[in-house]
UniProtKB/TrEMBL annotation:
Compartments it resides in: Cell membrane
Transmembrane segments: 71-100, 112-131, 143-164, 185-207, 262-279
Key words, A-Z: Cell membrane, Membrane, Transmembrane, Transmembrane helix, Transport
Domain ABC transmembrane type-1 stretches: 75-276
The protein's name: Aldouronate transport system permease protein
Taxonomy, superkingdom: Bacteria
Lineage of the species this protein comes from: Bacteria, Bacillati, Bacillota, Bacilli, Bacillales
Topological type in the membrane: Multi-pass membrane protein
PANTHER family xrefs: ABC TRANSPORTER PERMEASE PROTEIN MG189-RELATED-RELATED, POLYGALACTURONAN_RHAMNOGALACTURONAN TRANSPORT SYSTEM PERMEASE PROTEIN YTCP
Family: Belongs to the binding-protein-dependent transport system permease family.
């Protein structure tokens, strides 16, 4: 029997879509403003003429950005951090969440282990002990100092283990009857069926590593070892004249600090803008559709 669409439902849908559109536009406007600033001349920006469309179009700010060896080096460090850190995060999250998703009858002490991980999320030794451990292990000024301390994101483990617990137990039981071992069940059944959850925690891991800046400041003694966000922090909060080159001085008439910073911010945000649409589609998928036939 077809559901009758009432006038009230149509009105609700129209209002709902308008509100969502308004919210989406409000989220996009700041990014559009930054993009417009990056392509505008310094005089137009100083005069306050730029809103959401470039004025006196110029790419001087981007020439300045991609001409900075320090900026490109920091960009590459962030790329390496995302690749290494995300791979390690996903691997350890899956391997920890799978056994913790079992019942106590199948994994004795499961509750104790689960609370052990939860405890580390609620309580920590503090910033100074954390720093001292990293320093004494010789990780300072290396990419591993940015990756290993956050190798096991407990929140992601909780998200994934709860997703695993929602999968039909009949799938694992039938696989074991066919002779499948735990790793076969995990990688050939659980992981393929968990794409929505995996896409979510993958996005958390990528954004977390890419946007992290504080650990780079305190775990790197030399600025050439800064990841991109730590490097941006040093030049956006206070532009360092030491980074200026003769070529940048020639471009000074076409740009100012705001256009340069806007270009660097947009370049830093661009990878996340590219990655997100490919992962977002998994959020809308149903959970284990058609996995169990009655």
């Amino acid at each position: 029997m077809a559901h009758k669409i009432t006038g009230g439902y149509r009105l609700f849908s129209i209002i709902n879509h308008c509100l969502l559109l308004l919210l989406a536009v409000s989220c996009m406007l700041p990014l559009l403003h930054i993009l417009a600033l990056s392509f505008s001349s310094g005089s137009a920006v100083t005069a306050g003429k730029v809103t959401f469309w470039p004025v006196d179009w110029t790419i001087a700010a981007y020439e300045n950005v991609f001409g900075k060896k320090e900026y490109l080096a920091a960009f590459w460090i962030s790329i390496k951090r995302v690749l290494l850190g995300t791979t390690l995060n996903m691997l350890l999250t899956i391997l920890i969440a799978y056994p913790l998703s079992k019942e106590n009858s199948h994994f004795k002490g499961r509750t104790l282990y689960a609370w052990y991980f939860v405890f580390t999320m609620l309580f920590s030794g503090g910033l100074i002990p954390w720093y001292m451990v990293i320093r004494e292990t010789g990780l300072m000024d290396t990419i591993w100092a940015l990756v290993l301390p956050s190798a096991v994101p407990i929140f992601n483990v909780i998200v994934l283990l709860n997703f695993f617990r929602g999968l039909p137990k009949e799938l694992e039981e039938s696989a074991k009857m066919d002779g499948a071992g735990p790793f076969t069940v995990l990688w050939r059944i659980y992981v393929p069926l968990s794409l929505p959850a995996l896409a979510t925690i993958l996005l958390f891991a990528v954004v977390g590593h890419w946007n992290s800046w504080f650990d780079g400041l305190i775990l790197a003694n030399r600025t050439e070892n800064y990841p991109l966000q730590s490097f941006l922090h040093t030049i956006i909060i206070k532009l360092d004249p030491a980074y200026l080159t003769p070529k940048e001085a020639e471009l000074a008439a076409l740009m100012n600090d705001r256009t340069s910073r806007a270009a660097q911010i947009f370049v830093a945000a661009f990878p996340i803008l590219i990655v997100y649409p490919f992962l977002q589609r998994f959020f809308m998928k149903g959970i284990v559709l058609g996995s169990v036939k009655e």
